[in-house]
Maltose phosphorylase
Amino acid sequence: MGEIIVTLRDYHLTLRDVSDEQPEYLETVFSLGNGHFGVRANDPISGNPITGTLINGFYETAPITYGEAGIGYAQKHQTILNLPDLRHVHVSTSNGHQFTHSKRTAVDLDLGSGTLKEKYVISTDQGETVTMAVTSVMGQGQTSLWGISYTFTAANYAKGLLVSKSIAVPAEAEAIPSADPRKTRMAGLPICETEFVTQDLQRYHVKTRVTKQAVTMYLGILVAHGQLLQQPVDLSDEQAHTLDYEAYVGEVGKHNTIDPAAMFMASSIAALVDDSRDFWQGVWNRSEVSVDGNDDLDLAIHYNIFQLNQAAGRDGRTNIAAKGLSGSGYEGHYFWDTEMYMLPYFTYTNQQMARQLLLYRYQTLPKARERARALGVDQGALFAWRTINGEEASAYFPAGTAQYHIDADIAYAVGKYFEITRDLDFIIQCGFEMVLETARFWENFGSWRQVGTDCRFEFHTVTGPDEYTALVNNNYYTNRLAKHNFGLVVELAHQMMKRSPQLLSKFGLSESDLDVYQNLADHVYLPYSNELEINEQDDSFLDKPRWPAEKSTPENFPLLLHYHPLTIYRYQVAKQADTLLADYLFPEDLSVDQLKREYRYYEGVTTHDSSLSRSIFSILAARMGDPEKAYRYFMDTARMDLVDLQKNTADGLHLANLGGSWLALVAGFSGFYVQDEVVHFANHLPAELDRLTYRMKIAESVLEIDLTADNLDVTVISGPIPTYGVSVNGELISLVKVS
């Protein structure tokens, strides 16, 4: 039986659905991307000097300047480049009056086709006005192509227009000083060359000065006998007049030899719309989510999934930046966010994409080995905390490099990918080496300690997910993930040995080495408070005074922008879910009663200054039987960028939060997790929702999960009946396949 096609509701994001109409905010929210490059929704008339086109992985470096540098400090900034604004257009009257003013009056982003439609009223200093409709779309199968169409109609001006468009070499923009590490930072100008190949085709070549990356872009007009410059438009006949343009963005390389002349202009706006629509149909067939009872929420979750798919690198050489391709905040860096918040969506809906994202980490493994040596660890690998090219780019090591847990996060993601795909070829070729090298790091980084009769393996001077508590001993989250990392080596090794016992020797291992890793896993210390009967965030967290109540006022958040780090570090205050994040990842570790105790305690000391926090609190509230609280946290998660909750969406979307919103629906409201080849679901649907229906892929099977107030059904939509067991509300069920 073939795949059952989703008939997608008519989902459109408009100006009515967003928090305000500030230009920089709208540029982010209505941005388009395809994993390779992104185009912010800049005003085509007024433009924006610092943000336009972003290419995933196209970056420049510059030395990091320290007042007092130390051995092993990160050496270079890595900053994604802001390339020319492809949307900008020059419009003038036939007598030379420039249209320099514009007002965006309507926006419509179609989540079913990926088409963005906008309307502007543009005007000259002399008061002449024209209506301009703009349609733009990204190629999704053809990921090097983007198209835009301008349609002009008369307003109080109804004579001739001259329309011209070109790729302009960017001017040096002045960086606005900011202490906010989330803000956009500027890189130096690259080497730029531009020329008109023909009257209707312009070539733009850009090469970075330090990284020696290069990319070629082409811009062309898609009308017969048209030219980019001085295209006339006559408004006097009262008809709408449309001009179509298309841009080609080549692959990034140190020596770009791609010549797109033959393939360029082979498309059209209509063809790109079809290409985009086909892609999005596939996305929704695999991962459609429908929420009944709250239309705003239903639209928001579709938007979040849409942007996740736009942001993810698809080539195995790029990943998902913290702001995706919607803005240059965090300098275009990749973080642990991918593995823990965004990759699960792909792991359970599009395993090929998940594989590509993991492959990026494998490509950076040599640099991770170098980083471990720089930290004085003679074996294993330490992946960079924030990076584009695999080298560490975090200039503040207490909240950067010290978050060693990224190693175990990546190993955890590899394990989850294998758990659901049984892709042993990937494990043999790439996955096991990453898991083994991270385990070797933990083995050499940690130390044994005898406490009474207890001999335990500990990790000192680390920072967990809570960046308001730095350089501590035995962060619970870090230790629990390292414990899992050790055990995963043993588990995956046994899987490979089933295929061939000789595979162990390929990695320099013997079966006795596996016993060593199992022993380490068994003895990793997990701090626990007997007094409070909860897992301790670290050895010292519970001994600190709580953050003063008088400083916990809205104007003081986020704390990192108002207080010196050493002030924050002295207190018992958490930026985000930390120990609770481990509780989410390992639901088998603790009872519901312990979860309730931990939740109550850590909720009281958490500021949620990180966008990564609320989704985890939502999931755990649902699991412990408080769906109303889960819903409240979830609403902040689901609509974070659409209401600009963190007040910095102008610098780019919060991609990890977008992934977290999907997790909150799936792992929270439907209680999803996988353990020992059993897929578990439990109904935690809040009363505020009438129904939740979503799709996910388990092995080769697409499942549809349907929740109402008193029922949870799981059916097979396409593929075979999975060999995995399926548990609903604690009872194993037999799956049926719909026809």
Summary: Residues 255-263 have pLDDT under 50 and may be disordered. The longest strand covers residues 99-110.
